[in-house]
Amino acid sequence: MLSEFSLIERFFERPTSALKSPEPALRGDRPKATLGIGDDCALLAPRRGQQLAISTDMLVEGRHFFPDVPPYALGHKALAVNLSDLAAMGAEPRAFTLALGLPRADEAWLESFSQGLFDIAQRFDCELIGGDTTSAPAVNICITVFGDVPPARALRRDAARPGDDIWVSGVLGNARAGLGIKLGEWSAASPDDERRLVRALELPEPRVALGMALRGVAHAALDLSDGLAGDLLHILERSKMQASVNIDDVPRSPEVAALQQELQQQYMLAGGDDYELCFTAPVGERSKIERIGQRLDVLLTRIGTIEGPAPYGHAPDHAPAIGWRDASGKAVSLTLQGFDHFHAD
Ligand code: ADP
Ligand code: MG
């Protein structure tokens, strides 16, 4: 039986400084933690001229992931969703802590989990500096990430301005389509298609380089964890704005585009778990943003406009903050279920 300390030492105390392949945007002279795992606290020196961006996300077995999810994917996703929050703020990853609740110390499980975790940590040059480990009735993974962002350049949700374009990265709906496959809601044309969609669900790629490139270019940004329809509202609420979105412009994969329309909209707009970025930017930045997309090889699509201030002091139950339109400009009324993935209630 592994003791708590040998478990930490064996699976989580690894130097992230032995970097194999940090992302190109993250190479450079970056300070490490002054003191990592093993003492009462980690010590992290503030970086001159930067603010710390901090975010926490918790993943609970049975609620956020299936008990049988591959542990490698779980380790990846636990950090990926946190890095995605840094990306959405325009912050550069620096370090993270890991609080882990485990029903048992299963060595094979821990081996794969920590491999998934450290593979993505190394790619994004994000160092594990501490945490806590306890037994628990179900697997519970809570990560806090720390990143750097220059003051006044963070991509805040309250910064959308009238006339801004609304952009999204990547395609939307693949993760929810992958969940649909696992739930037996539908099946794709080929096993390859199915693998690709389940991969989008289990191994999301945080848009860190994109978030950093959008500093000083985008106004507001967030990452799409719960679906565009709900997440865009967060920007609108914070910025006290309303928007129009062209549904036909929302980027989708061929697999999702082949679905019957209602399911397609449900997956793309209310599905969640895509971890793409949604951001607003002035019209004058269009060509710069297109160049960023080309340089980073990320699809960037304009899907709508910030129309102006919300009329009613802006509550979501008043006038709809998002006017959905089709390509002809006609208003579309959506029948999205308030949908919380992984548990339908
Ligand atoms: P404390 O008694 O202060 O709670 P612990 O005995 O829990 O400290 O942890 C000892 C050291 O191991 C600390 O530096 C802590 O940050 C680190 N640690 C504990 N669990 C983890 C984990 N899951 N991942 C990384 N570091 C951990
Ligand atoms: Mg402890």
Question: Can you give a write-up of this model?
Answer:
31% of the residues lie in helices and 21% in strands. It is of the alpha+beta class and 345 residues long. The strands form two sheets. A six-stranded mixed sheet has the order 6-8-5-9-7-10, with helices on both faces. A four-stranded mixed sheet has the order 1-4-2-3. Strand 2 (92-102), helix 3 and strand 3 (127-135) form a beta-alpha-beta unit. Helix 2 (71-89) runs parallel beside helix 3 and helix 4 crosses helix 5. The longest helix has 19 residues, at 71-89. Mean pLDDT is 90; it is low at 339-345. Residues 8, 12, 37-40, 98, 100, 128, 130-133 line the site of adenosine-5'-diphosphate (ADP).
Features of this protein?
about 350 residues; 6-stranded mixed beta sheet; single chain; binds adenosine-5'-diphosphate; alpha+beta
**Which shape, going by the Cα principal axes?**
globular
The helical percent reads: 25-40%
Query: Please, what is the average pLDDT?
Result: 90
In terms of per-residue confidence, which ranges show pLDDT below 50 for 5 or more consecutive residues? Answer: 339-345
**Biggest beta sheet summary:** 6 strands, mixed
- Write the element-wise H/E pattern from the N-terminal end onward: HEHEHEEEHHHEHEHHEHEE
Helix count, DSSP H or I runs of 4 or more residues: 10
Distance between the termini: 39 Å
Q: What Rg do the Cα atoms give?
A: 20 Å
Q: Which strand order do you get reading across the main beta sheet?
A: 6-8-5-9-7-10
Bound molecules: adenosine-5'-diphosphate, magnesium ion
Class by alpha and beta content? alpha+beta
Strand content: 15-25%
Oligomer: single chain
